[in-house]
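As a point of orientation, let us examine one representative protein, giving the amino acid sequence and backbone structure tokens.
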Amino acid sequence: MSRSPNKQHGFTLIEVLISMVILAIGLLGFSAMQAMSLRDNQDAYYYQQSTLLASEMQDRIRGNNFADWSTVTIGTGDCTKDSPCDAQTMANNDYGYWKKSAENILSKPRTGETVEISHTAQVNTNCNIITINEVCLINRWARTHSQSSDTSSKLSDTATFYLKVTP
């Protein structure tokens, strides 16, 4: 059996070029997916940290239910065996410690982070505060965005975590 001389064997240069273009487009898509995954992973980390911080403060509030948490201010007083704190001073100290911890964890190296305790005087529809002694823990942080100026993103620039607590 003899072969016809006009039959081709192997790939042509055009076929190789087209397959390289298809491979390059696939690799670009994969790298974009990897970048999005890293960004979303960082957002999930901050959400987890915010949840843990709010849970810690919730325990502090429930452990000191004699304080008026709706009037709490940032306190840094020292409580010792010789000079014990009253319930309100302890609440102020707990709030100051929590606020500092939350800002350290949620704000590195970005800006726009706040943590606060809200109460019925500060109407907050996200916590649905009904009774006068309920408070709302609010953690807000800047979301991680890619370096591009993509305005089509449906995510807001900040993320907020709310936790309603009844002392």
Notes: The chain has two helices and three strands. Strands lie at 114-118, 135-142, 158-165. The longest strand covers residues 135-142.
